[in-house]
Amino acid sequence: MRTLRGIYANIIIDISHESVDRVFQYRVPERLWGKLAAGQQVYIPFGAGNRRRKGYVVELTDRPEYEVSKLKEIEGIVRESVTAQSQLIWLAWWMKERYGSTMNQALKTVLPVKQKIKEAPKRQIRLIAKEDAFREALALAQRRKYSARLRLFSLLKEKNPVPYDETVNRLNLTAAALRPLEEAGLIRVEVVEKYRNPLLEMKRLLAGEREEAAEALPAAGWQPPVLNEQQRMVSQAICREYDQGIRSTCLIHGITGSGKTEVYMELISHVTAQEKQAILLIPEISLTWQTVMRFYLRFGNRVSVLHSRMSAGERYDQYERARTGDIDMIIGPRSALFAPFERLGLIIIDEEHENAYQSELAPRYDAREAAGELARISGALLVLGSATPSMESYTKALLGEYHLFKLTCRAKADAALAQTEIVDLREELRAKNRSIFSRRLKELLEDRLSKGEQSMLFINRRGYANFVSCRSCGEAIKCPHCDVTLTLHRDGSLMCHYCGHRIAQPKLCPACGSPYIAPFGTGTQKIEEMAAKMFPKARILRMDMDTTSKKGGHQEILSAFARGEADILIGTQMIVKGHDFPKVTLVGALAADLSLYAPDYRCNEETFELLTQAAGRAGRSSIPGNMVIQTYQPDHYSIQMAARQDYEGFYEQEMNYRRLLGYPPAVGLLTLQISDHREDRLDRAAGALAAMAETFPDRFPGKQIPFIGPVNAPVYKVNDIYRKILYIKNENYDILIHIRKMAEACLEGLEGVALQSDLDL
Ligand code: ADP
Ligand code: ZN
Ligand code: ZN
Known about the structure:
CATH architecture of the largest domain: 3-Layer(aba) Sandwich
Low-confidence stretches: 208-216
CATH topology of the largest domain: Rossmann fold
CATH superfamily of the largest domain: P-loop containing nucleotide triphosphate hydrolases
CATH class of the largest domain: Alpha Beta
Number of helices: 23
Strand order of the largest sheet: 12-13-11-14-15-10-16
Distance between the termini: 26 Å
Structural class: alpha/beta
Bound molecules: adenosine-5'-diphosphate, zinc ion
Shape: globular
């Protein structure tokens, strides 16, 4: 808990009140100096009538923002301790400041579930009377001819306890009729299952996988694997820091399959044994249910999950279980960070490099940063883990801001890293091979098919290159609402992956009328067709957004593949994220360059991560694995370093590039994106921003603040909305925040234009 200093407090009024978007300043009476903390609930006089209201302290300061004599005084503290709810409210405040959203948006994000979805708890009636007391009660009921009561007693003599609802309905009893029996100590009404448990549901979905571990978990006799030397060193070191109260963020850099998950479990065991609670963030639960089941197997009902496909009621229950202490650990995507644990001790972020931790909705928070802040105010430890840490995190580790721990070998002694080769696609063309499978990849696929081993083939972006173009005029068929090409689907229709617009494939070129229009490039459906043609006997599964849109789609495809029901799994990058398929011995990246062309300074990093993680999928067991990277840029360092599994080598080159071009984490980057469906208004707003940027030398004398733009966004039009971007670079966080606020003020009077900002450091 962080105690704040200062004699003026900025306070947001209790959230039931509507004017929540503003803070109000109050004087802190002397008796409360040094006693206020971030998120603390206080009583304050509010409004003209000075009605007593509750508020949350978000900031203390020595500088009054109003005339001091007009400031009212805080009346008192509502509760001495800061509750989970108040911590989350403080976090919302922090997010609003950091990411530039409204307080309402921030509060909706951290306190997502508002209403309980009513569902009566499951109950049962248990007979608890001693023998003579029971005999007496029975005699009394007979004498007075209480027939319903008699029926209940005879039922309870046969079977104890009995289910509440069924019994009450069948015997025509009422709650009122049961109460005297309860008061007399004859029966007890017990709550059996208070909350919906999503893991039970998940287990039913996976029926057959762990059926023997049915009700009571951990199953009798089950033992976690004995940690190897490196795993033990890392988990002991982190536990020691934890016990000593050291709260520097820890970064575990462990190669794929090095046993990071087992280390996480050790850490969680350690803090939960001290009555503390833990949050484990994972990028996407539907892709990592295997991991979740490992936690379930070890921790049983002390663990729960949150995920996007749960109903509002199920979610509500999990938040309640967290709040009441029914569970001490939760696993989920970034929103699981807001589980209201009163005794939070540990936050772990697995695969911390994933961009799933970046929210796309306002507030556009980064879960890693928000977790850092939450850990700080609740006194918890933050642990990040990855085989390919993000540039930002690794830089902090090298600077000593984070504590770095390494796992350098695979956990299973006999599992070697995959043998990786790069295939130059230009060579294939020279050899007149126009197939999407290089000769080497084809040869390896044939080999695996003949041995009955499994293969995975992926491309980096869904439908990215699967468009239709005109051979006469060269035009590609584009979405009328967005600046992107339409993607060809197998049913012959063309679809926009940005806005969902769908049309039948035209016979003539819309631009020149030529009949010579044809598909160009390769999507997952096309690869599936070509693989089926080339290997007619192979059993092929495809996993992409089209085949997984229904509930449980991911699990179904992945578990079918895990059970060995297919020889080849084809998909987008989602197939190479985080699974453990022991029988996969070949992974092919069909067009590794696709992600190198993305209009984003992170594209080299993303490509390296993806290829390194993919290589980790091949050869998880004792059978040696192969990885083939097909590319037109065999010398690119992202591809070279991924083939060598050389993270440090990649980091060094990439950091040079970021320094040279001035990108984070070398310098801070503020991205201001403005959008409007009217281009004229957008141009006017862009003009205003440009004029604002021209004032930087006067506003910040002596500071170098380079900026680019406003320029058209890489995809200028989406869903009929035009977008322009202004990029601003500086090392100083406060300056960039200040500029963001300047931009907000500068656009305030302009109608229609929306501003969205990102601040990368
Ligand atoms: P990571 O999270 O680093 O990818 P995992 O924790 O998933 O690695 O471990 C990879 C595989 O090795 C899993 O199948 C896991 O059960 C197994 N494993 C991990 N640690 C050990 C150990 N100490 N002894 C035996 N097997 C282990
Ligand atoms: Zn044409
Ligand atoms: Zn579109």
